[in-house]
Amino acid sequence: MSRIASVLLPMPLPEAFDYAEPDGMDLIVGDHVAVPLGPRLLRGVVTALRDGAGHNRPLKPVADKLADPPLPPNTLAFVQWAARYAVDAPAWPLAMALRGLRAPQPKPQKVVVATGMLPAKDTPARTRALEAVERGAFSPAALAAEAGVSSSVIKGLVGEGVLAIELVEVAAEFAEPDLTLPPASLNPSQAAAAKALDAMLAEGGFQAALLDGVTGSGKTEVYLETVATALAADPTAQVLILLPEIALTQAVIGRFAARFGVQPAEWHSGVAPPRRRQVWEAVAGGRARIVIGARSALFLPYRKLSLIVVDEEHDGSYKQEDGFIYQARDLAVARAKLEEGAVVLASATPSLESLWNAEQGRYRWLKLSARHGSAQLPDVTLIDLRETPPEHGRWLSPPLVKAMVETYQRGEQSLLFLNRRGYAPLVLCKACGEKLTAPDTDSWLVEHRYTGRLVCHLTGFSMVKPLACPHCGAKESLVSIGPGVERVEEEARSLFPEARIAVFSSDTVMEPDAARTLIAAMEQGEIDILVATQAAAKGHNFPNLTLVGVVDADLGLRGGDLRAGERTFQLLAQAAGRAGRHEKPGRAMLQTYAPEHSVMQALAAQDRDAFVEAEMEMREAARLPPFGRLAAVIASGPDAVALEAYVKALAAVIPNAEGVEVFGPADAPLALVRGRRRKRFLVRADRNVDLQGFMAAWRARAKIPSSVRVAIDIDPYSFL
Ligand code: ADP
Questions:
Q1: Domains in the chain: how many in total?
Q2: Is the pLDDT of residue 597 over 60?
C-alpha cells in the first residue's frame, strides 16, 4: 500500500477514518472523496495523508476522488480546532465549512440570440426586436420588454429560426475591488487609529486589535481603510467583515461598495442557496476578496485570509447556541491565529473579555473618544417609573410622551426601544390564573396581534388565540400581560394619530429586502416614530433621529445571570447611541424602576469606565470570566428516569482537577422543552486549566443512554 488517507466523515465521530489511497489517485489534503462505510458510500474530506509502509491491517480503499475544489489546509485546521474548542465532533464544523458546496448550482438562464437568418417578413415590431437583441443578453421576457413588443413577436421569430434561445451559465461576478478610489478624509483620531492598524498589518503574522470608539465615532471609516491596506499589500489577500445582524449587513455593504467600487460577497441565511454556492466557490478560488457576513462566514474556505473585522464584537448574537455551539468572536481570533493574519474587534461597548485582553496588552487598544464632526453624544436621563408612572394599562410615562411631542413638533424622529417581540409577553386566564405555555414546554406563549396567534419563541410552536381558556374553559377570560413592540406601537398610534409609525422586529421585518426598505425609510425621514427591538438598536445611522426612549430599561437585568449587567449596559448604551448622530443634538430617556442601580447610573453618567471597573471587580472576586472560565453541560431527554440516572452517574465521576468547581446537576430554568426534561451542570475553572480537556474526559466517563442528549457549552451566554 502506498499511502493512507485520513478521511473526516459527516458523522458524529471523534476522529477521521483511515482508508487506502488507490494507486494513481494522487490525493491532497482537503480533497473531497467518496469512501465506503458499511454498505454505504459517504462523502468525506481528506485531513491527512501518510506513508502506508509498515501498516499491516488491511484498509478499504478510497472509492472516488470528487471534483469539488479542495478545502484549503487552513480551513481544515480551523474546522478541527473549532471542534476541539467546542468539545464536539469535527463533523459539525466541517458541515458548516461545506454548506455552500452543498447548495444547488445556479440554474442556467435562457438568453435570446440572433442566428443571422433574416425574417420572412418584416414588421416594425420585428425590427425593434432584432435591434434590441443586439443590445445585450436578454431573457425572452426581458427582450420583449426592452423592444416594447409582445412576447408573441419573440416567439414567432424563434419559431422561424431568426432568433434562438440558448441556455447560459450565470456568471458569478466577483469584481476586483478598485484600490485607486480615494480614501475618506479621516479626522485626527481616526487617522491615528488607522495608522496604528496599518502598522499592525505591516508587522505581519498574527495580530489583534480592539477598536474601541464611542457610537458614531467613525469606526467603520477606520476599518474600511485598514481593509484597503490589507488588500493593497497582497493581491491575493482576502478580508472578512463579520456583522451581528443581517439588517446591518445591508448598510455596511453599501459603504464598502462606495469605497471599493464593487459589491462585496455577502454570506448569511438571507442569501439564496445558489448564490451561496457561487460565493463559496469564489472564496475557495480566491476571487472573492471582500466577504461580509454573519458568524457562519468564518467557516468559508478562504485561500488567504489576511484580515478579519468583527464589528459590534460585544454582540450576543455572535454566540451560536444550538447545534454546534460556538462564540464567533473567539473563533475569529483563533482563525486569524491559524491564518497568521490580523483581527480587529470593533465596538463602542466592548465585551469585558476583550477589554481585559486589551488591558493585558494582548490586543492593541485603539480609542476614538468623540463622535465624528460636530455630532455630540446624546444626553441620557433616567425616568423613575415610581415617581412618574404611565397611566394604567399604558407603558409610556408622561416625561417620555412630552419629549416625543417636542421631537415630533420639531419634525424629528423618535425611536422607542423595547427588546420584546409581539404584543404581550404573557397571556393569563383571569378566571383560573393559568399562564399559557407551549405544549410540554416551560416557556410562555407570546401574543402576536398582527397574526392573531400565540407563539412560543423558544420552540416555534404557535396557535390561534383561543376564545376560551384551554385550562378551565372560561370564556373571554384571557388577558394580555405586559408590553411587546406591537403594544407600544398601538399606544404610540393613539397618542400620535397623525404620525408615521413603524415597527422593526424580526417578526415584522423578516426578509433582508424588507429590512433594507424600512431602514432606508427611516434614514430618509419617512418615519416619525420607530418602535423597535434590538434589531434596530445596532450600528445604524439615522440622521434625523434625536430621541431614543427605552420603554423597559430594567428588562435585561431581571434574569440575573452573570452577564445581565454587562448585556444591559451594552444594549442600552447602543440604543441610546442611535440618537443625535448628526448635527442635531440627541437625547435618550430610560424608563426604570431602579434608577439607583449601578448600570442605570453608569448609563446616565455615560461613564463606561466606572461600570467596567465595578463589573471587573465583581468578576475577579468571583473568578468569573474573564478571570476564570465557564462551561455548561446540558443533558436532556424525554425519559425523566433515564435522564435522572444519567446526571447522577455523571455527578459521581467528576474528574478530580485542581482549579475546577462543578455546580449541579440542577433543573434547567427551562426544565421542559418540547417534552424533553433538561438538567444542567455549570463548571467554573481557573484560566490555566485545560477546560476542554476536562470536559471531554468527564463526558467520556459516563455512558450516555440512547434517549439522552448531552450538549457542552463552552463559555455559556444563556443560562436557561
Ligand atoms: P461608528 O461605526 O463608530 O458608530 P460610523 O463609522 O458609522 O461610526 O460613523 C458615523 C457617521 O459619521 C457616519 O455617517 C459616517 O459616514 C460619518 N463619518 C465618520 N467618519 C467620517 C469621516 N472621516 N468623514 C466623513 N464622515 C465620516
A1: 5
A2: yes
Residue 312's domain comprises 188-368
For residue 321, which of 557, 634, 543 has the smallest C-alpha distance? 634
Distance 35 CA to ligand 1 centre (A): 53
Query: Residue 347 Cα, ligand 1 centroid: separation in angstroms?
Result: 13
Q: Name the 3-class secondary structure at 427.
A: strand
pLDDT (tens digit, 9 = 90+) per residue, 56-79? 788 999 999 999 999 999 999 999
pLDDT digits (tens, 9 = 90+) for 74-110: 999 999 999 999 999 999 999 999 998 888 877 778 8
User: Tell me: the pLDDT tens digits for 404-457?
Assistant: 999 999 999 999 999 899 999 999 999 999 999 888 888 889 999 888 899 988
pLDDT of residue 55: 77
Amino acid at 36: P
Backbone angles phi, psi at 486, to 5 degrees: -65, -35
Residue nearest to atom 14 of ligand 1 (CA): 541
CATH of residue 11's domain is 3.40.1440.60
- Tell me, rounded to whole angstroms, the distance of Cα 567 from its chain centroid: 16
Whether residue 677 lies inside any domain: the answer is: yes
Ligand 1, atom 22: nearest CA belongs to which residue?
A: 186
**Nearest CA among 398, 319, 355 for reference residue 86:** 319
The protein residue with its alpha carbon nearest to ligand 1, atom 5, reads: 218
Ligand 1 atom with the shortest distance to the CA of 220: 6
Whether residues 230 and 355 fall in one domain: yes
Do residues 194 and 319 share a domain? yes
In a domain, 23, yes or no: yes
Residues with C-beta less than 6 Å from any ligand 1 atom: 184-187, 190, 213, 215-221, 372, 541
The CATH number covering residue 664 comes to 3.30.70.600
Cut 0.70: pTM above it: yes
Query: Do 70 and 217 sit in the same domain of this protein?
Result: no
